[in-house]
User: Which sequence fits this backbone?
């Protein structure tokens, strides 16, 4: 069982498990439990016999439990599986057999079953929306994928990886500007890895310069993107640099609200930012 917010890479993890298992030579199939009505979902998963219902194929149809024989079947968004189908799936898990729609003979299931969901299944069990017995049968090896905002050390490596990937796909030579990486590392990524992948591809194909500067980033406030030179103080280079640094930190604090978020957006340690704000007697809540 893989749990995590939408876009955290649950399908990628399931595919990785399959590719590094003894079933790697078998098929890897996935079914989204929210993608179709209950009747179609049942037929897609379990298959059906000839004449099982009006409009059924004369020869019947194999379900994914059959097609995935010897391989892995991923049931995505298992928390949305209707209760009636949960009972049928429980038999598959417990007895490794299933009955096609309209069938009279059980068929053997030889698959690795991986389930994924963004829902809190324990809460759904308490609310009567998910079978308790099925929950415990599926949760033999529970895995939780934290959101990208809780594993920020992975953001820049992921950005570099997908930039290379999409450069090759679209025959481009884009590269990240260091400030762009710092700003993206401080973004909260509510869409997680899926958002990161989509943003990277969009920038690769839409930016008309080789270097992806902060100007092209949709997450960068204009005040952080282009500091106002006229607002800096007169004086030596060191004094002007310090004044510009103070403006940037004040703006980041006003934009993000906390020293932690502001430091992440600026690409510096929180302790460094706090020391500087104390030096300038800036009163902000951490």
Assistant:
């Amino acid at each position: 069982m893989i749990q995590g917010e939408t876009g955290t890479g649950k399908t990628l993890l399931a595919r990785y498990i399959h590719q590094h298992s003894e079933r790697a030579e078998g098929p890897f199939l996935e079914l989204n439990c929210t993608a179709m009505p209950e009747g179609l979902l049942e037929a897609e998963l379990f298959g059906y016999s000839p004449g099982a219902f009006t409009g059924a194929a004369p020869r019947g149809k194999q379900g994914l439990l059959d097609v995935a024989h010897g391989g892995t079947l991923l049931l995505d968004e298992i928390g949305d599986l209707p209760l009636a189908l949960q009972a049928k799936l429980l038999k598959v898990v417990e007895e490794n057999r299933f009955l096609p729609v309209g069938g009279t003979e059980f068929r053997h299931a030889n698959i690795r079953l991986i389930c994924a969901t963004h829902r809190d299944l324990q809460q759904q069990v308490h609310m009567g929306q998910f079978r308790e017995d099925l929950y415990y049968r599926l949760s033999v090896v529970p895995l939780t994928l934290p959101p990208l905002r809780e594993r920020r050390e992975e953001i820049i490596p992921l950005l570099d990886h997908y930039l290379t990937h999409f450069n090759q796909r679209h025959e481009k030579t884009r590269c990240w500007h260091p400030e762009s990486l710092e700003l993206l590392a401080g973004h909260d990524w509510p869409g997680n890895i899926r958002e990161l992948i989509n943003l990277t591809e969009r920038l690769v194909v839409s930016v008309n310069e080789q270097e992806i500067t902060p100007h092209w980033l949709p997450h960068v406030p204009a005040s952080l993107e282009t500091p106002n030179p006229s607002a800096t103080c007169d004086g030596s280079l060191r004094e002007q640099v310090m004044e510009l640094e103070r403006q940037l930190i004040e703006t980041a604090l006003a934009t993000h609200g906390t020293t932690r978020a502001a430091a992440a957006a600026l690409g510096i340690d929180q302790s460094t930012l706090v020391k500087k704000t104390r030096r300038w007697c800036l009163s902000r809540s951490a």
Summary: The chain has three domains: 2-145, 151-220, 225-279. The chain is about 45% helix and 10% strand. The chain has a mean pLDDT of 87. Residues 225-279 form a domain with the Arc Repressor Mutant, subunit A fold (CATH 1.10.10).
